[in-house]
Design brief:
Shape: extended
Helix content: 55-70%
Largest sheet: 5 strands, mixed
Order of helices and strands: HHHHHEEEHEHEHHHHHHHHHHHH
Length: 519
């Protein structure tokens, strides 16, 4: 058999040549199939890339169109901003103009009045302190502005408060009234009613702030009972219409008046403040607990023993004589902190306190180790429930969510019992809410406002209620430059003075001067 390429004969036997040629054929055949598959893959890849290129080109064209649109929009916004800048003066110019603009029949500019009231309302400055701050700043920066006296600023504050208190309120069916009494020296106590609308409640997870509530009534009373409270609630109805909710601390007079009002107005739901409810639960659990009574007694004694010693930094917190179960968690926190301190080995390199003195004065705390653990769990459940209701309010399903939120916090029978009572209380309260409605569950905002007012009054509170009670109106709702200007132009000083004389009458200090003055 001849070789086709060389023309020479093969020397191998035919049987071997047959196997060799067969294998060679199979190899070429396999290589052909492999190349054919590769060509097919490359053709498919080419078609995919060509299609992708077309898609990308279309996407690029769309993006270029979008970029051009955004550039045009940005240019329009820049032009609009420039136009606004040209139309409106700068912030510095606005401030300067504010000092030049004066309310009708006033000697001071609106800017000075806003500055004084901002120091008092927002910076927790006293009336005398605000006047002095303006003097210091004016002298330091060589500002040619008149500095008001604290007495002038006091009248500004009262006039703004009177304006907010008496200005017309919007009539609506979703008002919430927050009702409480505040007391000072003397027989007079003041009924305070603040209000906000349910539609103005902050989102779940946030608390009600002073700016969200409106002053509805500030009523000094020498005599108060449920009937008197009911009469004033009925009178307040003329301002807002029948409220959807009245929330209070369930004081005797307030509770009776609110129940009578709600009986006459079924649309209104009475709600018990969560903070006072938890205080009532704590009182029920602790007031007859021998360990708790002994612990508070020893803490009070220890405070007197260490107050004027080197251990003053370790003294327990003061205990309230009234509403003592409102903030008792601070006493338990102190006990747990003292336990941690006593459990630490003394550090010779840093002897802050004499170990023997600490053991002598405060070593008794170790006898309450187990009780403090139980009380800590109890207060954690209570404070967690308070915070949740304060931030989320009362709505259908609130008790179920609260129960889930408290899961894992109760470790004793007592704590589990209190937790169940809290969940049941929220379930009862939420039953008053309509579907998709969220009621206010805490009256903490009125407690905060009253506390801020007392801080502003300072020592004047020792003379009973004075005209500064009107400052309560200024402390709430939004206080803008426009509000201040309208208030000062529409409320003369004589109107405020007449209100003080008619509603308050002579103060305790005025009666004292009249009685004890010579002659």
């Amino acid at each position: 058999m001849l070789n086709a390429k060389t023309g020479m004969a093969y020397k191998s036997p035919l049987r071997k040549l047959a196997r060799f040629f067969e294998q060679s054929r199979d190899q070429w055949k396999a290589k052909h199939h492999q190349l054919k598959a590769q060509i097919k893959y490359l053709k498919n890849r080419l078609r995919y890339l060509e299609k992708s290129q077309v898609d990308r080109q279309a996407r690029v064209e769309d993006l270029e169109t979008e970029v051009a649109r955004l550039k045009a929009e940005a240019q329009g916004l820049r032009e609009e901003l420039e136009a606004v800048k040209q139309e409106r003066p700068s912030a510095a110019l606005q401030i300067a103009q504010g000092f030049e603009v004066r309310p009708y029949h006033h000697g001071y500019g609106v800017g000075q009045i806003v500055l004084f009231l901002s120091l008092v309302l927002s910076a927790a400055t006293s009336l005398r302190g605000a006047a002095r701050v303006i003097e210091v700043v004016s002298a330091l920066f060589h500002l040619e502005i008149a500095c008001p006296s604290w007495w002038t600023g006091r009248w500004w504050l009262l006039r703004v408060g009177y304006y907010k208190l008496t200005r017309p309120k919007e009539q609506a069916e979703d008002w919430v009234w927050i009702v409480d009494f505040t007391v000072q020296v003397g027989v007079v106590k003041c009924l305070v009613i603040l209000g906000l609308r349910l539609c103005d409640l902050p989102p779940a997870g946030q608390c009600v702030t002073h700016e969200l509530v409106e002053p509805l009534a500030v009523i000094p009373l020498e005599h108060s009972d449920g009937q008197v409270v009911y009469q004033h609630l009925t009178a307040t109805r003329a301002q807002t219409g029948v409220p959807r909710e009245i929330i209070s601390d369930h004081g005797t007079d307030v509770k009776a008046g609110v129940e009578q009002f709600c009986a006459q107005n079924p649309h209104t739901s009475p709600v018990y403040d969560i903070k006072h409810k938890t205080a009532a639960l704590l009182k029920h659990e602790l007031e007859h607990d021998p360990a708790w009574l002994m612990f508070t007694q020893l803490a009070s004694r220890a405070q007197g023993q260490v107050r004027q010693t080197d251990l003053a930094a370790l003294a327990p917190p003061s205990q309230k004589t009234q509403a003592r179960y409102m903030n008792v968690d601070s006493l338990v926190d102190w006990g747990q902190a003292i336990l941690s301190y006593l459990d630490k080995p003394p550090d010779p390199s840093e002897p802050r306190f004499d170990p023997a003195s600490v053991q002598q004065k405060l070593g008794w705390v170790t006898d309450f180790r187990d009780a403090l653990t139980n009380w800590g769990d109890l207060f954690q459940v209570v404070t967690t429930a308070e915070s949740w209701v304060r931030q989320n309010g009362l709505s259908p399903g609130a008790s179920r969510k609260l129960k889930q939120h408290l899961r894992g916090l109760a470790h004793t029978d007592q704590t589990r019992r209190v937790q169940a009572d809290l969940v049941a209380f929220v379930a009862q309260q939420e039953s008053q809410a309509q579907p998709h409605e969220r009621l206010l569950g805490s009256s903490e905002v009125i407690e905060s406002v009253l506390g801020k007012m007392k801080r502003l009054e300072r020592d004047q509170a020792k003379s009973g209620f004075t005209g500064l009670i009107l400052s309560l109106g200024a402390l709430v709702a939004t206080t803008t430059q426009e509000v201040i200007q309208v208030a000062l132009e529409s409320v003369p000083t004589q109107k405020v003075l007449a209100w003080c004389q008619d509603v308050l009458g002579p103060s305790v200090q005025a009666k004292r001067r009249a009685a004890l003055s010579p002659g």
